[in-house]
């Protein structure tokens, strides 16, 4: 699973085989915590990220939501900047 971005100890990854992975989503890993976020709604749909990390991921994803959707639809990897 390619790494899309890294920021504040959070790693964002995405699978590129949609037929096997349902709705458009990405994975966030923060230490031993993992979560899955819906790209279209930016809601955490699975996982156990601490609330601060969830907020950071949602802030980041809101800035790059269109790029994430394009990657999901095209299966083309692109590294995105983290939060600044």
Features:
84 residues; alpha+beta; five-stranded antiparallel beta sheet; 1 helix; 5 strands; 29% helix; globular
Overall description:
- This protein is α+β, with helices and mostly antiparallel strands.
- It has a domain at 17-74.
- Helix content is 29%, strand content 30%.
- The chain has a five-stranded antiparallel β-sheet.
- The longest helix is centred in the last third of the chain and has 24 residues, at 51-74.
- It is globular.
- The N and C termini lie far apart (24 Å).
Assembly level: single chain
Distance between the termini: 24 Å
Low-confidence parts, pLDDT < 50 over ≥5 residues? none
Largest sheet: 5 strands, antiparallel
Strand content: 25-35%
Please give the order of strands in the largest beta sheet: 1-2-3-4-5
**What is the helix/strand order?**
EEEEEH
**Could you tell me the radius of gyration in angstroms?**
11 Å
Helix content: 25-40%
Average pLDDT, all residues: 92
The number of helices is: 1
Strand tally: 5
What would the principal axes of the Cα set say about the shape? globular
Structural classification: alpha+beta
């Amino acid at each position: 699973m390619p790494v899309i971005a890294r920021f504040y100890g959070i790693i964002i990854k995405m699978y590129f085989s949609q037929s096997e992975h349902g709705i458009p989503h990405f994975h966030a890993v923060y230490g031993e915590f993992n979560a899955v976020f819906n790209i279209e709604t930016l809601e955490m749909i699975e996982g156990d990220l601490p609330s601060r990390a969830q907020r950071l991921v949602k802030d980041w994803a809101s800035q790059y939501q269109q790029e994430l959707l394009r990657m999901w639809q095209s299966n083309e990897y692109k590294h995105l900047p983290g939060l600044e």
